[in-house]
Amino acid sequence: MSRAPNRRALLVGASATAAAAMLGGCDRLGNAEWFRRTLKTGEDANMFVQRLLMDDATLAPEYAEADISPWFKPNGTEDPPDKDYKALAKGKFAKYHLEVGGLVEAPLKLSLAELRKLPARTQITRHDCVEGWSAIGKWTGVPLAELLNRARLKPEARYVVFHCADTMDQGNSLEGGGDGEGTDEVPAGNANPSMTKQSGSGESRKDSGGQQASEDTAASGGSPVRYYESIDLVDAFHPQTILAYEMNGEALPISNGAPLRLRVERNLGYKQAKYVMRIEVVESFAHIGGGKGGYWEDQGYAWYAGI
Ligand SMILES: Nc1nc2c(c(=O)[nH]1)N[C@H]1C(S)=C(S)[C@@H](COP(=O)(O)O)O[C@H]1N2
Ligand SMILES: [Mo]
Fold this sequence. Notes:
The protein is 26% helix and 21% strand. It has helices at residues 4-10, 15-23, 33-38, 42-52, 83-90, 112-117, 144-151, 191-200, 202-208, 215-219, 233-236; strands at residues 97-102, 108-111, 121-128, 134-143, 159-167, 226-232, 241-247, 250-251, 261-264, 276-282. The N and C termini lie close together (11 Å). It binds ligand MTE and molybdenum atom.
């Protein structure tokens, strides 16, 4: 929560206390009646968050067309092995639907064509991976705020979880090749302990799937561990937070997350969930996956990855 001091400085009056507590991840005020009233509808929550974001300084830098990297290096999963995903890809994602559910009044199910008809935003931004590489790309997609406003958040909503299509190899290292400098940042004993725990947990199967846990992976012993990520409402309603279906003016390639990937600018690469199948609004992510809010977080990476 390193941004909190800056944002606190933007705030005035009574909302400052509530906002500071919210940004600090403090649940104390969740029980205060006046604070709950402040967030009683999704619209209120949206306005509340927007007020925190009025300063342009909170936007990630945007670049010119000339700055776009000739090659946007794909990383992590580049071709999801999952049968369901492969079938969708084969049909050029005509049968794909994004689901938006959880703590919302009006769950959504939208095809790619429907997503493309919603208001769109295009931005040229820099992606920074913890491994130490960066790339500048142009992204076009639907602002997440647009979807959340349509779905209408319930008052308990605190986080937005992105469930992805790709099953992860439980032994892999961050960038898939094991050559990464970023591995320094993984606490000792990284992947295996938490992954073992996750495989044994009865809950993870239900929660970790993009759509439904695929039986083929389950048959090999554990439940499938799919990539997932989560962000708070400040990032969710940030104007540069979009679900992108285009990269550099073309349909998003499979290697970069087709048909839909998150761009949550001002955050490191691993927060930029690819192959997003389902969005779940939650009060807490403690019961999802390994409980730390994301696939890499479950293996020791920081949940808050602001840059
Ligand atoms: N579903 C999914 N999303 C993912 C990953 C992944 O393996 N699976 N890797 C993450 C990491 S570590 C990075 S750096 C970026 C890479 O995005 P790119 O392939 O477009 O470069 O995606 C992130 N989102
Ligand atoms: Mo990354």
